[in-house]
Amino acid sequence: MSLQLGTYAKISWCPGCPNNQILVAFRKAVTELCESGALKEENIVAAAGIGCHAKILDYLNMNTFNALHGRAIPAIEGVKAANPALTVVAFSGDGDSYSEGLTHLIHAAQRNSDINVFIHDNQIFALTTGQATATSPKGFKGLTRPSGSIEEPIDPLRMMMNAGATFVARTYAGEFEKTKEIMKAAIAHKGMSFIDIAQPCITFFDTRDFYKDNITWLPEGHNVTDLDAAYHATKQSDGKIPMGIFYQVETPTFEQQL
Ligand SMILES: Cc1ncc(C[n+]2csc(CCOP(=O)(O)OP(=O)(O)O)c2C)c(N)n1
Q1: Where in the numbering of this chain does the Thiamine pyrophosphate enzyme TPP-binding domain appear (predicted)?
Q2: Measured distance CA(134)–CA(13) in Å, rounded
Q3: Please, which of 53, 124, 193, 232 could form a disulfide with 186 given CB 3.0 to 4.6 Å?
Q4: Ligand 1 atom with the shortest distance to the CA of 127
């Protein structure tokens, strides 16, 4: 079986943008899940908010819905509630879901809605040319922080564990194979699956060199069912950025209880 997930739309991301790698990882993840019989192509619905990340829908030959800024999550929750047989994925940005539409993210986790949320986290509002978001690091200089940000960034993984998400992961867009595998695990998981995807914006906040030097993967023995261990594993004292599946437990989903 060979899926035709590409479209005729011309890619309009900046040449070399890591969003391309997220797109390819997702297409491959869906293809492999369909080939193994775990998923049916016609049963997938993807949504996105507004931003560079949202263009991903133009390049996916599947059922898609482009929501308002920060509103991909309620759109996809509605789709899932109306037809729980569907597999739903919301692509969102850090501006879209950690700033603009944050409460939707929190409440989807609180409900353990059986949705997948993949955040293209470039630590800025990229499409509008580089304003600070909730994950911009302290000292970040951009259009809205000309003298450097004085705020500490939020930790989206800890926030989602606190809110009740039952699958919490982080990956790096440049690590295609690992990103694909984490996406497959997220889609297979029953309940709220959340992946923060570090996605350098090569035009307005190029963090590729930082990630090249500072990524570390969770050790083999990491216990994904231990919330306390998962919470503490998101940060390391040496400043390295841990990646992988931090937390995963099975609890009743919103749709099962509805
Ligand atoms: C309600 C609303 N507020 C603001 C905007 C303007 N706007 C369009 S794209 C965008 C930035 C999106 O940033 P992010 O969600 O981080 O996605 P990225 O472009 O970084 O992928 C903004 C602020 C909008 N379209 N709608």
Answers
A1: 50-197
A2: 23
A3: 193
A4: 19
Tell me, in angstroms, the distance from the centre of ligand 1 to residue 205's CA: 16
By the 8 A CB rule, do 109 and 165 touch? yes
Answer whether 90 contacts ligand 1 (Cβ < 6 A). no
* Cα dihedral sign, 241-133-247-158: positive
Per-residue model confidence as pLDDT tens digits over 222-257: 999 999 999 999 999 999 999 999 999 999 999 999
Q: Give the pLDDT confidence score for residue 125 in this predicted structure.
A: 97
| Residue 118 in tokens | 């993949």
Q: Quick check: CB of 22 below 6 Å from ligand 1?
A: no
User: Which amino acid is residue 220, in one-letter code?
Assistant: E
Of 166, 169, 49, which is closest to residue 102 (Cα–Cα)? 49
Closest residue by CA, ligand 1 atom 12 = 51
Tell me the domains of the chain and their CATH numbers: 19-257 (3.40.50.970)
CB 115 within 8 A of CB 104: no
pLDDT score at 2: 57
Nearest of 136, 212, 131, 134 to residue 173 by alpha carbon: 212
